[in-house]
Write a structure and sequence with these properties.
The chain has about 375 residues and is mainly beta. The chain has 2 domains: about 110 residues, Immunoglobulin-like (Sandwich); about 260 residues, paralog of FGE (formylglycine-generating enzyme) (Alpha-Beta Complex). It contains 4 helices and 25 strands. A hairpin with a 2-residue loop joins β4 and β5. The C terminus is likely disordered.
Length: about 375
């Protein structure tokens, strides 16, 4: 039986943060001259009969590569967004990491205490880019209640379960788009303004190009105007309509994540047409730099206003059934975009409002933001 050994105590570093673990006492020597783990020293399980106490580790990873246990390669490969179980790991404090083909090593954010006869779960996460936030999965009511002012008939409320993902804090800027695609189609020019006048196809192409540039697996296969989505890819992609609304609401059930109303001090839209007709606001008549307004409680900027944001989904009628990570209609003629833009009336900024256009459509009121898939963590228990 192959036993994977590990040191009994360790300090590990991840993304510049020191993770401290409990230091175990020095162990006695076993018959082979190797230090026993704390579990073995206490005579637990098979160790008391001279057989090393072992457990298992189930590893879920956002990176692909070779699994490492306490700095030693195990010979086991794991795919990005995949799960592998490693048996016969010697009991004790254990460090798990994944070594990619390029030599980069990503460690689990903390060590795990392996116990004899038990299986422990470890998640190896990729470092989160500075301009992304992790959105923990959960349940929420998608759509709007019947009493919501200006609601549309296609906003039927229904329960949706959303898995965890990473989302860009900001809409993709012209500087970011130009750096990847070598051009800027926007009407309103400025490096920190959101890119606009991009079609859904343009947004999809950007996702793949940026993924390839950063050595990630592209999320989309593109054959002319036929696009398929690899849901196991770790590259950049557009949010689903459900992910977008879940993130925009940030736990709220009101028409906006700002509450029952919204002002032009909180978002960029056509202030001549306020939500509750309580007085006009500013009409700027152009986009504003991303992050110009206060973010929602999950750290996302401009989820209301500035530019409508393309989503993955074909536009279609909601199902009344509870759904898990719905990808939208199987087919259609228009793709969904959400959030309203600089020229929109306030009612079209609501969290539940559904806008849709032909995927080839380009307008100065359309842009997008990025997401990346994630794996579930133990604390993914949000529910709204």
């Amino acid at each position: 039986m192959k036993i994977i050994h590990q040191n009994p105590a360790r300090l590990c570093m991840l993304a510049g943060c020191l993770v401290t673990v409990i230091l175990l006492p020095l162990a006695a020597q076993d018959r082979e001259g190797e230090p026993q783990s704390a579990v073995q020293k206490q005579g637990a399980g098979p160790a008391s009969a001279g057989i090393p106490a072992v457990g298992s580790i189930t590893i879920t990873s956002e990176r692909s590569g070779m699994i490492m246990i306490d700095g030693v390669e195990t010979g086991d490969q794991i795919k990005a967004m995949g799960t592998v179980t490693i048996p016969n790991v010697r009991a004790g404090v254990t460090e798990v990491a994944v070594k990619e083909d390029n030599g980069r090593i990503t460690k689990a954010p903390q060590t795990v205490l392996v116990r004899a006869g038990e299986t422990r779960h470890v998640v190896v996460q990729r470092p989160i880019p500075d301009d992304f936030v992790r959105i923990n999965g959960g349940d929420f009511t998608m759509g709007s209640p019947e009493g919501e002012l200006h609601r549309e008939s296609d906003e039927t409320p229904h329960q949706v379960q959303v898995s965890s993902f990473y989302m860009g804090k900001y809409e993709v800027t012209q500087r970011e788009y130009d750096a990847v695609m070598g051009g800027n189609p926007s009407r309103f020019k400025g490096p920190h303004l959101p890119v606009e006048q991009v079609s859904w196809f343009d947004a999809i192409a950007y996702c793949n190009a940026r993924s390839q540039k950063e050595a990630l697996t592209p999320a989309y296969s593109i054959n002319g105007e036929k696009v398929s989505w690899n849901r196991n890819a770790d590259g950049y992609r557009l949010p689903t309509e459900a992910e977008w609304e879940y993130a925009a609401r940030a736990g709220t059930r009101t028409p906006f994540n700002t509450g029952n109303d919204i002002t032009t001090d909180q978002a960029n839209y056509n202030g001549n047409y306020p939500y509750k007709q309580q007085g006009s606001g500013i009409y700027r008549e152009h986009t504003t730099p991303v992050g110009s307004f206060v973010p929602n409680s999950w750290g996302l900027y401009d989820m209301h206003g500035n530019v409508n944001e393309w989503c993955w989904d074909w536009y279609g009628i909601y199902s009344a059934e509870t759904q898990q990570d719905p990808p939208g209609a199987a087919s259609g003629s228009s793709r969904v975009n959400r959030g309203g833009g600089w020229s929109s009336y306030a009612k079209y900024l609501r969290s539940a409002i559904r806008n849709y256009n032909m995927p080839s459509y380009r307008y100065s009121n359309r842009g997008f933001r990025l997401v990346r898939s994630s794996v579930p963590l133990a604390d993914d228990v949000a529910s709204y």
